[in-house]
Amino acid sequence: MVQITLTVNGEPVDVAVAPYKTLLEVLREDLNLCGTKHGCELGECGACAVLLDGQPVLSCLVLGVDCGGRAVTTVEGLASDGRLHPLQETFADLGAAQCGYCTPGFLVTAKALLDEHPRPTRDHIRDALSGNLCRCTGYQQIYEAVEAAIAKGSR
Ligand code: FES
Ligand code: FES
Q1: pTM for this prediction
Q2: What are the angstrom distances between the C-alpha of 26 and each of 8, 37, 42, 79, 155?
Q3: Cβ(98) to ligand 2 under 6 A?
Q4: Which of 29, 51, 74 is the last residue before a domain boundary?
């Protein structure tokens, strides 16, 4: 086991990780943060997306031991002061989350987009979310939810 210290959702965390475990496995199995979803494990579905130092990454493709000293944001870290992030509100309000399995990955990827580009076009949103797959919504509601969050002044 390898002892690492990282920041998870704004809090410092010490954790002993098996060197072969992915960040996805460390989050879900060692830190009990199960909001990040376990999909293909091949880098193809986007269900496991988290932010690493503010950039979206596929946590199934990142080793946990390589995350020492870095900052990870998962879907659990989007709400603040007991309030949902505007993206979470609009995803819920507009039917952008149906079974919900893909939703955490979409939310963190959309947050990264809005942090960098507060007013993206529809094409830019579609492009930024193109690595996230959804089997339920047809994507239209997802794009509309991101645009609604922008209208609310989301970042
Ligand atoms: S579980 Fe990581 S991309 Fe599918
Ligand atoms: S809401 Fe079911 S996979 Fe996207």
Answers
A1: 0.96
A2: 11, 12, 17, 21, 27
A3: yes
A4: 74
Tell whether 121 and 144 lie within a shared domain: yes
Q: Which atom of ligand 2 is nearest to the CA of 106?
A: 4
Residue nearest atom 4 of ligand 2, based on CA coordinates? 134
- Could you count the other beta carbons within 10 Å of the beta carbon of residue 117? 13
Which ligand is nearest the CA of 137, by number?
Answer: 2
Q: Which two tokens stand for residue 108?
A: 């963190």
Ligand nearest to the CA of 99: 2
In terms of DSSP H, where are the helices of 2-138?
Answer: 23-25, 86-93, 103-116, 122-128
Does the C-beta of 95 come closer than 6 Å to ligand 2?
no
Tens digit of each residue's pLDDT (9 = 90 or more) over 20-75: 999 999 999 999 999 999 999 999 999 999 999 999 999 999 999 999 999 999 99
**Dihedral over Cα of 136, 139, 97, 73: its sign:** positive
Domain of residue 123: give its range. Answer: 86-151
Per-residue model confidence as pLDDT tens digits over 106-139: 999 999 999 999 999 999 999 999 999 999 999 9
